[in-house]
TrEMBL record, chain A:
PANTHER family xrefs: POC1 CENTRIOLAR PROTEIN HOMOLOG, WD REPEAT-CONTAINING PROTEIN 55
One Pfam family from the record: WD40
Cross-referenced PROSITE patterns: WD_REPEATS_1, WD_REPEATS_2, WD_REPEATS_REGION
Native organism: Blastopirellula marina
Name of the protein in question: Uncharacterized protein
Keywords: Repeat, WD repeat
InterPro entries assigned to the protein according to its UniProt record, in alphabetical order: Quinoprotein_ADH-like_sf, WD40/YVTN_repeat-like_dom_sf, WD40_repeat_CS, WD40_rpt, WDR55/POC1
UniProt superkingdom: Bacteria
WD repeats: 55-94, 95-136, 156-186
Automatic annotation (TrEMBL), chain B:
Phylogenetic placement of the source organism: Bacteria, Pseudomonadati, Planctomycetota, Planctomycetia, Pirellulales
Signal peptide coordinates: none
Official protein name in the record: DUF1501 domain-containing protein
A UniProt-annotated Pfam family: DUF1501
SUPFAM superfamilies: Alkaline phosphatase-like
Domain of life: Bacteria
InterPro entries membership: Alkaline_phosphatase_core_sf, DUF1501, TAT_signal, TAT_signal_bac_arc
The species this protein was found in: Blastopirellula marina
Amino acid sequence: MTADPNNLKVIKEISRRDILFSVATLNESEVLVGSSDSNVHRMNAQDEKAEVSELSGHTSYVTGLELVGDQLVSGAYDGKLKWWDLEKKAEIRSIDAHSKWIRRIELSHNGKFLATVSDDMVCRVWDATNGNVVHELKGHQTTTPNNFPSMLYCCAFSQDDRFLATSDRVGHVVIWDLHSGKEVRTIETPDMYTWDPKARIHSIGGVRSLAFSPDSKQLVVGGMGHVGNIDHLGGKSLVEIFNWEKGERLHQLADDSYKGLVERLVFHPSGKWFIAAGGDHAGFVKCINADTGETIRDSKTSTHIHDIRLKDQQGKLITVGHGKIVLWQL
Amino acid sequence: MSKRRNWFCGSEEHRISRRGFLGTAAATAGSMSALNLLREPALAAELKKQDKRVILLWLAGGASQLETWDPKPRRPTGGPFAAIPTSVPGIHISELMPKMARCMDDTAIIRSLNTKDGSHGGAARMMHLGRRDEATVQFPDLGAVLARELGSRDSKVPDNVSFYTATEGRGNAVGQAGFLGARYLPMSLTTNSRPEDLARLESISDLEHKQRHELRELLSNRFIEYRHSNSLRSHNEAYSRVRGLMSSDKLFDISEEPQSIRERYGPSLFAEQCLIARRLVEAGTPFVKVSRAWWDSHGQNFETHLELVSELDHVMSVLLDDLKQRGLLENTMVVTLSEFGRTPQINASLGRDHFASAWSCTLSGCGIKGGMVYGATDEDGQTVKDGEIDAGDLFATIYMALGIDPHSEYYVGSRPIPLVHEEASAVTEVLA
């Protein structure tokens, strides 16, 4: 059984008191979630009681989780990367990876490399098994054009692990050659960033999510469209699909039905469709045709979604966000 | 609390003669024995007020106390930022303010404001006036009172200047002179950091302008000779200051500052306006409000504060440092104030909403005991657990620090009106 977007439906919701920023799946029933309480929680999402155990050691929001073999790697706003022994519930290694918030960690498809992006505006590529630095990628400005601190939100490996894309607050996307560590292409997505120079004199937005298509030809970019009142996440959710090698935008999908940030993008292995999830005060999950840009199926959620995991073989999707874990059938 | 009657009767004549006397006294202070003057307590108090100034950094829209002066790290309400130690042992502030952390010695943090009003409009008015208008009385705001109390009649610089060049929230923070009259309204800069139309028309020579001014003054004085109108006097006073104000045009021109100073402040509009504020107080302007909008972070509170607090931290620390290096901080108070704070509860947009129950402000410099925290909130920042104060208490503290008796009275007709509401009392713990 593989995931089919036409089947999208919620099968279980688990309410939480904390805000969940990241999720990893151990098996069909066990999940790990990165929390605003600075801990990683391991829980059985199938059980009605969903008993929780904790891995503690971070000192701020846990924003990234990846499984490297039988170890878990977590990244947090405290700038640290931690390797965990899940059997012993013990910390194996802790690295001061960045001087500012780690916004995202991503594992390469071959499982050898971890990429981290941080508000220090550096992307570091690590040997996933020993924590050694492989590349230090600096291609994003530390400040916005209006002299405020910029933010480096996300990264994504291409399916063949030849390329890594990174993106920032002002909508600047860089595609790096992972072998050489050099920039190979930049893409601008100015509609993802709102600077209000008159009413409020500050900004909102940025590119919050990236995903390469399985054939590595498309790069999908997610964020939020221009906002009038930037006190709120009042902009249309926005996805742009690029033929990144040509620097050509194929589709711009500004959704009137859903406001807020597209926080996560995940391609189905077939390459025919992808999932976009995020939200404003509430949340959404959308399945989008990668060729036409049309929405195949979408669904509202009660709270903002910060991370997702697609379990294609099981036809399952797990989303986590503000006070909620949601299990979906696809 | 005892209410003391001010020696000053409030009449126009008394005020003018008092200012005249003080002007003379100040001019001859070098040759007169200060002791002789100080024997008279009222006069001593008046002299104490001379040359005092205030810069209000108005953080419009409601800055979060949790991401500035009252962090609650590792609590569910605390948000993602850490708290960092400051130059004063035991005091921690948000990690977003490393520069202020290094120069806390001159700043008192008040963490116990409970002002009850969570609406932008009503709260902004209250935090400008220190109380609410009554049906029959419009009160003067802080700027108007200080222009009146600290300004000098023949000053060549404006005595109340307000920068608010963002548009959001501007209508909530307009100057109000109330019963003091238009003379004390601020020079409001809303579109530019320099006053428009202040320069003399090129088609008129300076001599012609002076002659026109003198003719207008002659006619005006004849007109009001047998009339008793505060309004007329108010407008006449405003006109009489025109030439002085015109000559102050260059104070708004930061190109007159050395490049190194401009670079220290930085390129943002807020920074440039704070540099102008420093130029103004250095030249004798008693009250300058620099409004920084807009802190209303219902969504993405942490990223909004990452932008705005980083700017505030830099600009405020440079401003305090600059004032100190110039010997001005001793006589200049810097206040950071909003209409309210922000909710401890983090909403689903990673935002914080309006919150007036337990929030913070700061006072630095003139008359303030720096390096201290007054008041406290509970572990999650939901309530004030110690030292609760309201807007009137805060205003009483500001006045007291400036050498102004907060319970001195103005008269509206025959009605005595104290500077602060009757229950208000100063936080003496923060007074130097």
